[in-house]
Structure formats: structure tokens, C-alpha cells
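Just wondering, can you check both lines?
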Amino acid sequence: MKQIILAIALIVAPVAAFTGFELYANNSPAETADLGDLSSLKTIIADVQTLASKGDLSAAAKRITDYETAWDQAETAIRPLNPSAWDNIDVASDAALKALRQSAPSADKVNKALAALMVELDDPANPPQ
């Protein structure tokens, strides 16, 4: 009987410890505040990506101004929710704006910067690459 109780204890203790750690670890990302609904920003960047992929970098540069305006207007509401995630998006935003606003923008650099920005908008908790 003692062996059965010991065997159960040896199984239950590590399982309980592992489960408790997993619950704690999985709750850590929940501490990263949600930045709210970024769908309108994603829609604008999707439009910019479409224009850029067609080679119309001039129209893409004009359309990204709509994104820049919306992003700047949303800063006071979004940034306090999670400054780190906001910064990640802001860095990617600046890179996309810079790529499009060069005197002779490179389509490849523009497309890469826009793709990186969309990745950040989808998952702002990860720093830009």
C-alpha cells in the first residue's frame, strides 16, 4: 500500500508542478496589454501593399500618409496600453515611411518594409526584425 501511495505521490507532484508552471507561463503574455482594434490600420497598409506590389510607389506613398495620420492620432489612446508593443509598431512604421519617401524608392525595400510593418500590426509583442 505504501508503494502505491509513494508511486502516486511521485507522479502527482511533478505533474502538479509542471501544470502550475505552464499556467503561470501562459498567463505572462496576457500581461502584455492588447492595443485594441488595429484593423483600420491594417486595412490601410494592405492597400499600400497592393499599390506597391503593382509598382505604383507614388500612389503607395500618398496612401501611407493616411496610415501615418491615423497612427499619430491613435497614439494617445494606444501607446499607454502597451508602450513596448506600440514602439515595435512605430519602428516598423518609420521604416515603411522612410522606404516609400526616398527620392528613388526601391520596390524591393518598400515591399519588405511594408511586410514587416504588417507583421508588427499582427503581433506587436515581437520586436521588428
In short: Residues 2-31 form one domain. Residues 2-27 form the longest helix (26 residues). The chain is about 75% helix and 0% strand.
